[in-house]
Structures
1.
Amino acid sequence: MTIFQPPTTFKPRYENWIGGAWVPPVRGQYFENPTPVTGQVFCEVARGTAEDIELALDAAHAAAPAWGRTAPAARAQVLNKIADRIEANLELLAVAESWENGKPVRETLAADLPLAVDHLRYYAGAIRAQEGGLSQIDEDTVAYHFNEPLGVVGQIIPWNFPLLMAIWKLSPALAAGNTVVLKPAEQTPATILVLMELIADLLPPGVVNVVNGFGVEAGKPLASSSRIRKISFTGETTTGRLIMQYASGNLIPVTLELGGKSPNLFFADVAAEQDAFYDKALEGFAMFALNQGEVCTCPSRALIQAPVYDRLLADGLERVRAMRQGNPLDTDTMVGAQASNDQLEKILSYIDIGQAEGAKVLAGGERVDLGGDLSGGYYVAPTVFEGDNSMRIFQEEIFGPVLAVTRFEDFEDGIAIANDTLYGLGAGVWSRDGSNAYRAGRAIQAGRVWTNCYHAYPAHAAFGGYKNSGFGRETHQMALQHYQQTKNLLVSYAPKAQGFF
Amino acid sequence: MPPLTPVSQVAVTPAAAELLRELTADHGPLMFHQSGGCCDGSAPMCFPAGEFLTSDSDVLVGELAVPGLAPIAVWMGREQFAYWSHTHLTIDVVPGRGSGFSLESPTGRRFLTRSRLLTDEEAAALGPR
């Protein structure tokens, strides 16, 4: 067991990161950044506005031509060096991320940061391996297809995995030869700046620019700017629609990842034996509490087949009761703090409506006071509801450690309940019968179906949504195409005129 | 027999009404669109009226009556409303910091939707939509 001290990594005040240097916000305003661990403010961050976005766009545009012409091998080398730098500072960044977001440091040490390192290395490899194409039209005519960067792109990052989501979006954009203006979430504005400072010598000035601020003041000017060639956003549906609306004004492409209400199906054969597989499945049941449920793919609906419903639910609840909630900087802590006070309040409001709709609380259901300095933090007990899929707690993304459990009778019933949702980002299927699991996975309308596993996020497996969960894919080489445009050179090698004139 | 006062599916707390008055002073007439999905999903998003383009894919859930202000429309995606239609929504405000482009986030306060079940009488008066 290790308990890290509150990090001293952070500076008391952060300006914007533009053109490879700290640039004070034009209007001179800053906002306070509290840690959800204790609720205390630990730094101030620039409250950027449209003027700062313009400065960042100036820097990005100045850097774009040279960066876009840089050899793929050279860009790959930059990504690899960033990965090495993160790896060399992994503990520092993991503790900082935990402090800013409230997530347990065991997760940042074992998942967020190692994954960030690996995704960078993946795209470093992917861009070097990417091929253009050529099509022979006829004997003397060839169509060459080149992958060219878009130029300057905008990226709006969510607060649930501040560093990892930034790397998910930056890696393909930079590999493909774009320059970026990045707007972090206002709940988690600082860790990405710690990273930018760490890697300042590795990136040419202006290739990555970070402007902090509130959505309406900094995010909107970025998303609606006519000076970006693409916008990528992870967040919720209303803002997603608004970003598409702004993008339509500029006729630029959008990729959106908008969350879900992911089903986690447990077929009866899972409980056929009390073995390692059953233990693994029970961990899968408990995965709703990973990152305090603040994951777009949180398996927040557990669907259990009727014959084993009582037993699997009882064993799952035992796993939930064994979760250790506490100081996020303690490596033994499994469940930390929600990222913000409004997030905490929203979760509690859902616990209210769940009970009003007649769902039964089987575990948790309340705010937790951990005492001492942690009393000011935002902690919710891992909560399990039993109810019906038509209830709002089964339909809306609570983004907290809240699980809604119901039963299904047969395959068709299970798939119907799983698909009775507006969203389709993630899903889980648990079965000892490979054919059954395969058929279920193909029948579920979701972009990622974890099969006999959950919450794994390796590079080289595509991540993205069906239905209202958005479109576009990340964490796979196909994401490169979201940051590229196709240049076709249609070349004639024929010696004679075409004969029209 | 129909009720004497019109039944509304939405309401606003005094604290939220006060914030709406402040935001109106800065931004003019307002609207809400109830979000879904991840991060700040399931939160009510407040925009200048007309900023968010609604369409046939949205439902006007109701209008907030704030003394001194024009009625504030509360919209929701039609498919989402299918799952929310049996509940009454009260726009409240809490300390916090939402993402998204909602107007109040720079104030350090965040609108929050509180829900309760509609009574049978309310549901009958509202009818199907």
2.
Amino acid sequence: MKKLFKKLSLKKVLYAVLTFILALCLIFGSLITILRITFFNGSFLSDTLNSSQYYNDLCVEIAENLSDLGDASGLDKSFFEGFVSEVLVRDDVQSYITDFYEGNPLKVNTSNFDESLQNALKKYIKTNHIKNVNDESLEYFSAKASRIYSNSIKIKYFSAVQDIIVNNTGLLTSLIVVLALISAAICVILIVTNAWKHKALRYIYTALSSAGLFLLILPICVFASGVIGHIAIMSRSLSDMYISILSTVLSDMIVISIVLIVVAVAVWVIHTRVRKKSAV
Amino acid sequence: MKKSKKPNTRALKRRKKFLRGLRHFLLTPVLVCLLLFAVIFAISTPFLSDFYSIGSMFLQDSEPVYSHTYENIFTPSDNSGDTVNAEDVDYPSIDKQFGTLEIDNRGVDTKLFFGDGYVPLRNGAGVYAGSFIPGYGKTILVSGHNNTYFNGLKNVKKGDIVKIRTSYGNYKYRVTKTLIADADDKSTYDLSADKENLVMYTCYPFDELGLTEQRFFVYADKISGPQIVGIYE
């Protein structure tokens, strides 16, 4: 009896460990999947920017910064009104994102902006009959305006993680597959080696529901703390963009956690039916 | 007695079964979840300080403010006496209007801000935050755009009076000289000076289109206004 008891206890411990490993695999698998479909996915960033007010806000910000430069350079307030085209900004940001995910050097091509600025300046000088023009001062102004535009197009902090994202996208996909296979293998082991199938289902239920709870609690805590709104970026467009991205990531976590919990409940229902059948 | 014992046992069994079911359905997942948190926390402990440092770099205590409006703490004062207590001075923070600056008949009459960033220079003249406010007995370095609020500096002559009004006192400075210098010439002002002096500067040449590489300086010495006392007490 004692031997049997010991055997049973060891088996139970083994099943508990397998359940725990299954829960860990589900958590890490879910987190890696979220990373893969968000930060490690070029179209995610483009879609987020398109669906938000990012381009509109960015145009307003660039215009304000250029207007300040205009103030310091003797240009009328009206000079930069409507100067920054949303189409141009959109194209330049999109090509920046493409370069980012293709691993190309992150440079903003300002040739279109520079050309429009030179044309606008020529027109302004001609229309206002300005004679006090120094080529060097004008060149300095144009270079600074171009730098303001180029810095605004760049997505701050992103350049720092370009190498990590470009070099590890494949690794992430492989990890997802490996974790999915491990999870499936553990489920099979639990079902095949367990004489009482309903007990195997209960272990799977525990792993699914605890992983679901884990993934639910984290984003709820982050949302409740309000920490997302405290991102230290002095640009409204960028701050809104990062808030939008982080909110999407956390919402994805909640969705996955709900899916896990729903699947867990379904497994529980099956478990009770199987147990009843076994009892009969 | 026997009859009443049977249903009780059955009810007890049902209750036990229900509690066991509840334990497996609710308690076990919650406990495993807590265990998962504990294990993941233990694994990540060596990296937590790094995460915390990176997080604190990107986060601030309050939500960032993107408003372009500024706060005005200036209320006219009639104190033109010799002293003002430090505790009576409402020290301005960056981008706040704390006074006005005026030069009679020279076309300079503007709001005075603390700091010389975008907000101050959009709306008036700004005191460089690394210098001092009036009454400190040190250098006050003020900048403004040459095409807007400081365009009138081109008319300033030696002997002109510059009036600065703040909530804690009214100050007068007499212009001693003007100077044209390169933008990066740091010898044009002395922030460690022991006497109160006002240095106003703007881009030069005036009314030129573009960003110029020279600056026009106007120097003035204090002639009246309350000294702030008890600063270091």
3.
Amino acid sequence: MPGFTHLHTVSGFSVRYGASHPERLAERAAERGMDALALTDRDTLAGTVRFAKACAAAGVRPLFGAELAVDGPRRQEEVARGERRRTPVRGGAFIDESTPRVTFLARDGARGWADLCRLVTAAHTAPDTPLLPWPDNHADGLTVLLGPDSDVGRALAAGRPDRAAKLLAPWREAYGDALRLEAVWHGREGTGPGSLRLAARTVGFAAEQRIRPVLSNAVRYADPGQGPVADVLDAARRLVPIDPTKELDSGEAWLKDPAAMLHTAERIVEAAGFRREAAHRLLEQTGATAAECLVDPEDDLGLGTVHFPEPHLVGAARRTAQRTLASRAAVGMVLRGYAGRRDYWERMHDELDVIAYHGFASYFLTVAQVVDDVRKMGIRVAARGSGAGSLVNHLLGIAHADPVEHGLLMERFLSRRRFVLPDIDIDVESARRLEVYRAIIDRFGTERVATVAMPETYRVRHAVRDVGAALSMDPAEIDRIAKSFPHIRARDARAALEELPELKALAGEKQRYGRLWELVEALDALPRGVAMHPCGVLLSDASLLARTPVMPTSGEGFPMSQFDKDDVEDLGLLKLDVLGVRMQSAMAHAVAEVERTKGERIDLDAVPPGDPATYRLIRSTETLGCFQIESPGQRDLVGRLQPATFHDLVVDISLFRPGPVAADMVRPFIEARHGRAPARYPHPDLEEPLKETYGVVVFHEQIIHIVHIMTGCGRDEADRVRRGLSDPESQGRIKVWFAQHAAVRGYDAETIRRTWEIVEAFGSYGFCKAHAVGFAVPTYQSAWLKAHHPAAFYAGLLTHDPGMYPKRLLLADARRRGVPILPLDVNRSGVAHRIELVSDSRSAVRSNSPGVWGLRLALSDVHGISEAEAARIADGQPYASLLDFWERARPSRPIAGRLAQVGALDAFGANRRDLQLHLTELHRGARGGGGGQLPLAGGRKTAAAGLPDLSDAEKLSAELGVLSMDTSRNLMDDHRAFLDELGVVSARRLREARHGETVLVAGAKAATQTPPIRSGKRVIFTTLDDGTGLVDLAFFDDSHDACAHTVFHSWLLLVRGVVQRRGPRSLSVVGSAAWNLAELAELRAEGGLEEVAARLARPVPEGAEGTPDGEGDGDGGDGDARDPARAGRDRSIRMSTGYEMHPWADLRPAGEGPASGRKLWHQSPGSAG
Amino acid sequence: MTILCVRFQLPPMYEAVLPGLLGLLEEFTPVIEALPPDGALADLRGAERYFGRDAVELASVIRVRALARYGVDCLIGAGPGPMLARMALYDARPGMTCAVTEDAVAEFLAGKPVTALPGVGTATARTLGEYGLDTLDRVAAAPLSTLQRLLGAKTGRELHERANGVDRGRVVPNAVSRSLATEQPFERDELDPDRHRRALLSATEELGARLRALDKVCRTLTLTVRYADRSATVRTRRLPEPTAHTTALTRAAYGMYEALGLQRARVRALALRAEGLDSAEQASYQLTFDPVDEKVRRIEEVADRARARFGPRAVIPGTLAA
């Protein structure tokens, strides 16, 4: 039995074409006895790295290639001949797929790979769809397969061997001996692609032209029976439904085994009129072609080797990079005042030695160069990640925090025993992230810099949409089904239908949709598009373009590598993560506002540490808007932990991670901190590293210390050990090793056992202290701003919207904290939110100060306003009259109307409706061209027209509609009377409620999460805002049947629940029943309380009293025993670290997140907006 | 309250039944204005006296007959004028005709949203809503001059009158009431132009045969293309001369279809309506020197006779036979 190599195989990375993942293809090739396999994706090499790794695992030799759309040498005239079709009135034009496609295989090692990258990059320079221009279509290191889809193949299909011969000539000229003709038989009729006659003609034509033929199967999927999936992908690509009466996928394009391919070859050569033995010749030719293609993943792709930018680009022109780095670090020592500290000098030299050992000096210089450039542009920049543990980074100005002072370890970042690329992330202002990218590209040049790709893959919602459209389902129905799913993997679609309570209704009609579910699951995780990764930037030497294919990003036109972030690491490309952090932008805006108004320059990086007002604020848990500590869980934790120092913040941030929460590290820590339980150490030697966290292991650094102290192995080895802990296999080995070495050091068996327990339990998912310090710096800075410059802080938050909460909630918070909210005013508002001194005499007298700083709302928040329009309005200030405003600011009619609705034009006349009428007439006059009569009277004021003014409710509605915020008052105030009737407890009064009391609470939904928690169950956490404060709710899974759907799909909620208290500042409500408050309020308004009573009397599915255990640190172990009936609850995901997770936890739930303002208000055709 | 507004509860793809149902109404009064796709206005001023029953009673009779003869239920509103009858229809439920009497008009209108008024579309309603004039009593209370400033002189005046219950409309028998329609649904989203044309050909065959059987000619053809997302495109074409000749109808239908230039539009149904029916004797016919035209008509005549004898599918074009 001869072997066979598939030379033409596409994976799912051929977007909406290939139906199998590269891993699956490699596995199948090995199973079916093939020694080599080529991956030739359409227009992309993105699957290469995953394919190479999968091949290595499966024991198959990988061949690399791509299938590209090519422009013929004489294509122009053909285009001119084609007639132009009429533009359709509906539905759009067909997707043009008529360009011939040709398969290129890298043959000649690194040269072949570089040629392949060049061709793919060139193809992506075409204006819309990728198309390889003919002048670029030449390469010495490539083998070319002309298959049925090439121009030559098409001529043969058309029965024109003469034309085929003519078309072949330029190919022969460009590629000479490396040209192959590819025969494919998919059992189709006729002479088209996949037909036996075309395959036979190809083989015959090859013999006649003396070009070697090869056999391929043009593989689109790994296994037989995946034809329908290919049909769905075709339909999704062409944007048409599947037409079963037309030619569908043949079902033959799977990865056939050698025997089947031999059979195919025999049929083809017989049809071509040769003897059957010629089939072996055909297979031999195919095998020989495969054997020529020698590209080694390690040597030629550069897997596992590193390429830094050339030293002369990073300031090391005459000296070596290492020397330059050393002298810059020394300069840093002096500048930062560490010159007299011997320990600093020693540490610096140690680190430099490690860097020299790896030869990473130019990497550090590169990052330092980027950080310097960014800082010179006036953009806030901060380092995060384990890089903060390096003193050299601190000295170069990359990281702010002093690693010696905070006890951060270099070994966690880089050591002689770590051979992975070090990783420094830098945070910049999100609003100016693209500027930073441009600066980096300008500094190093496009031949060295590229952004990183991020494939978007099918998840359940998109899969439902695409399959539904392909199956001709009703669009409204598709939309309904797709939206009712949470954001889960497509392959879990049917399991979710079975198990999730909020999908019960949909599960009932499951059978109606036939093949839908099967096909949805088949699309799981296939790429459906590619986007720019939000933070990765590749930096390399000038050979970058020879090692990675680059395409322009759709929006900004940045060069983007086709590889994703994991791929580039494997390829040894240096990736710098430049994260846009909105909080940095918000803080920058706040600082700029303070400087603009008060002339006071705040250096946030130099604010006094340990500011009492700041910590008072944090301890009060009113931390909305503060970086990292604003989520409901964090507010709860902060309330219990009561941080008083920067170190407490670091610990707080580290504790609030899935790992520590799951491992129940929080409760012992809190107990010990407040002196309720003594801090315990396994051995006095370990007191030193564990003292800072009262004996609880929180940081990776502590594990490193423990292992180092107990075994004396050195900290670099200890870090390696720590990494090994997350893998259950190596954990066993480490346990033995640990016991042996600790015993040698003289520790008794009991100590070793107890220490190992700690190491084993916490080691794998503690938090890196360097990360936490990096996080805690902006946390403290933002809290400081909130405590000292609240108005400016809110202005920054509202402008850059950094947090998890909707803007209206921040506004409510500002109102609660006594920051005056100043309405939108075209004469005062800027493009961004601003602060203003409120010179109101009353408030001045009351607060006994020169005045209060208020928050002036921004023009940019008006729905639909463009940047240019907002800037034009702001530039033209002040305006004397409505006419003046209309003529100089030239707002569009709808924007002007919206401004009038929210009172931004109130200065020009009293009545907002009259203003509307005047605007309309101005608009008509302008359109008429004549200007016409001015409908103004009484000088600068606008005359009244006698229309009724907006009522209060209408004003509020307008604010929500136009600004998505309730700016004049809280929207819940309007429901207050009804809520009092119901006996609802307000958030403020809830603070006095007793533990275990059953209460009713209500409010607008601010956030909903289903995070992974320790008990392995799914808990829905929801935050409601009722104007007096926030109410944090938890729904446990016994109430999900009754509540889940309501909670996910309503904006205003009324909830019955039981108060849970776990500390003076820690309070939550465990929900047992939930109603849509908007619906109830409507019933109240229309039918009175009787109607409401009737609605409430409607039976809620039973089993709903809230259980007082479970959340976070509660005990949840007995959950499954108590509730055995539900199949889905039994299925939980066991993490490698040993704790269980509910399969549906940690997903973005269905519904559309927190209410966005416009949806919070009923909309009648009569209400404004 | 002598005007009825009837809405038949037809499934969306059965517009073709409407002409038959209109025929049912014509048994009561000749003054009928069709409101495609599923409604009609009927003026019963004469009928009340003729049948000796009032409009509400006649409404029950109409409903019973529609159910008995066509199996189609209907909603009926009654009022003194067409506008009020239409508005009454909104409040009607199956089996309960909503009737508005002359003296209860103001009461009936108060509190209704402006969109309830026929002729006030979303655009006008939005304009009025922007100025807080969202109910009819508010509009009625607003000064005429303000309304005219908002909507223009004519529209403002008309709106003002109608909001005050002045109903100047009449029931005008229209072309659609004398029309024939056929609808060709597809089983799935259909993109294939060949199959679209086939459906059109089948539709014109059917319309032509029905017209010729009635000895009628039509003046206008209307093509409605319904899409998967429940939207539709409507095109109307006036024929060069009134005709019942299938070839001419087909040419017009194809012309309208080609002009749409559809490519990826997901077509769910094609409906064709022949409007402006007239008796065939009164139609003029442009003679030509082209003998083909004459021959085609002769063949059509023969085919019609064959169909009359052997059933409607005895003779059909080759493309439809496949």
4.
Amino acid sequence: MAHQDDINLMAHLMRRAGFGAGRDEIETRVAKGYDATVEELLNPNTMPAVDPYVLLRHQPAALLPGGQPPMGNVNYMYYLVNTKRPLQEKMALFWHHVFATGNSKVDNYDQLLEQIDMFRNEGMGNYRDLLLKTAKNPTMLFWLDNNQNHGTAVNENWGRELLELFSLGAGNYTEVDVRECSRAFTGWTFETKIPRLPYGRFPWKFEYRPEDHDDGIKTFLGHTGNFNGEDIIDIIVTQPACAKFICRHLYNFFVADEAQVPAWPIDPPRDPDAVAAMAAVFRATKGDITSVLRTMFMSDFFKNARYKHLKSPAEVVVGTLRLMGGFEIPKPGYGELSMQPSYMGQDLLNPPSVEGWHTGAEWINSGALMSRINFVAEQVGNTDMPGVKSIVSRLKAQGSLAPEQMVNSCLDLLGPVEVGPDTMKELTDQVKEWGQVRWDTPANEQAAIKHTGELLQLIVATREYQFA
Amino acid sequence: MALTTVVKGRAYDWSHAIGRGAANGTGFNYPQTMCLGNDGDLYVANRGNENNFGMRVNRITVGGPGDEELLSEFCTYGETDGHGVWPFGVAVDKSNNVFVTDEWQNTVSVFDGDGKFIRKWGTTGSGPGQLKGPSGIVCESNGNVIVVDSGNDRLQVFSPDGKVLAQCGSSGSGDGEFNKPWGITLDKDSNIYVADWKNHRVQKLSPSGKYLSSIGEYGTIPAAPNAFAVTYLGPFVSSVPETEYPKAGVLNHPTDVAVDPDGDIYITDWGNHRVCIFDSEGNSLTHLVGDAQVMSKWGQQSCDANPDMMKAYRRVHSLEPMWRFCFPTAVDFNPKTNQIIVADSQRNRLQVYNKVTDYVDFQANL
């Protein structure tokens, strides 16, 4: 039988590097070992990809969903729920958060999905390559107006965000650098796409127009030359600030909640040594993201960071659906299901601005908290769900349970979730009202199953459950 | 591909496109299957989506270019009698009764030719007569219907009022076994053809359900260098010569099949974005990849009403991506008009080809 410490550590890894895991999967991974599990997560191609054809058979509108929700969200949610490459999908979500583009302006969910697919395929590779692909991605070009960045009339939107939010962070460049950077990206645009009427959406395609490019000499971050966009990216990725900025993002996303990005020039990292260690690997490997992730997941600072991260709405919803099971095949209502993160403050494929979402405690307000609790409670309270049945089966195998045992077992099987003494007392007091949990007669078993669902609902409504 | 393809005594000549994306009225919303009525009208089952809930069956005339008219719409979204949640298969009997399967509710609803609800049957399960994700459906000449009970990987034969009469098939990849089959058709001898979707083949069965033969094996068509992905799953369009076309016998999730009076077989090779054509012995003849170089009548109306669309069209480098099939789901052959009708699902239109059997070649030195 697996040691509880190993269970706890593996559950922590799967919550952060993926979207959580049920007890069967955690035990299988513990048997495999922590290091081996990290390697499997870091090598997603060893696991099967999501089958998009099953999605398109049942929900064909999820491929080219146009500008109205929810069919684009259905597509994304299907991948999130079904992936057997959880870290790959988590990294796609990470880059969606960093290189934030949104349907509010793009009005083409299909283009956003194509961008997510690029993050899926490239997000664990080399940062420089990813940044270049992002710079050529038509969705990004349109989102930040680079199609209006002309040799004779510079538009600085892309150039500014590239430096401020995508690579270096405020304070590590000057206004002149913004101007020169933007000049280097003049002529980077996209072909006119086939318009949406009458046959639906067609994709954009990157286009470089040399006649619209500013061929003059530029001086950027101390370098001078006739730079094009690719040269700018090469200069950016060698800046020490770049390694620190990206690694602080990774720390915030995977390890522990940081201050919001605009405060980074003022507030130092929560754990400067951790960010420095990751940044050193970033520089040594010339931006190999998988190497940085390996260093992070194998570190003590990661292993000791349990419950220091407030779950994002995507983590809440996807984690719950994966734990509950039964959502592998799209079904009617999947659209409403896939919009749940937006009701909690994270409208996937449509972040509030180029800055992405604010994280940590900012996920919580009274409305968002109620949405979280109501959604998860509805799921875990449904004792017909495969995930709840699995928990019930394990409880039943433990035999008759005293109230304290019942609470501990449910906390354990639902996470494990660690709660404080006050919460423990509240939960135990409630179960004491139900008395000893027994499975010996059909009536007792029926009551035990009912109370299991109710206790799970109480647990997911606790403050502690909101943390990963 | 050229607009006219000539191969082994046959010519396939692109005729016209019908439709546009529409949640109701003149257009389609992700057609899954279709069926010709006795009068040549076409019934199209639309999957719709959870934004516009455009699920429905529409009945249209086909005719020549620009002749199409919308006659009626029925089986719109809903769970009550006369409605559907996930309409999938559609079939028409000799009396013009229309049978529609509902993949989610596990039912078969029957309508008259004008779309008036008559009755429905079906319960969820795997027992005799029960259904699990029914997809294609076809009417036999004796009035019975064969339902592709896709989730149960079998075919079931029902009387017109829903009494189960027979079944064949089971889960697997062997002869007579199925893996999530989709469309179905009959040839003039009542042999049964089933698009065995996840087994990447079409199986031919005798009228009594005995396995006879199969066509196809799994394969994808590689994208040419520098090919342009019309969606991230294809089709891939490139100016580089398509050296891999046609790739005989290779199918990727085939969805439907049709057989013409000569015995030629048409298969919608969904994942490869084409229609493959085989002779009656299963030898590959050619394929069609979509050639909608002329806008459909209803599509043109949409553009005419939106000047910005017309402006944008004039700036597009190449319209080729618009001509091509994008996940074609269904194919029918009209023996009275020699028309091959293809449901070009992601483009919410039909593409119509004429099979020309007396094609006379043109003077070669023009």
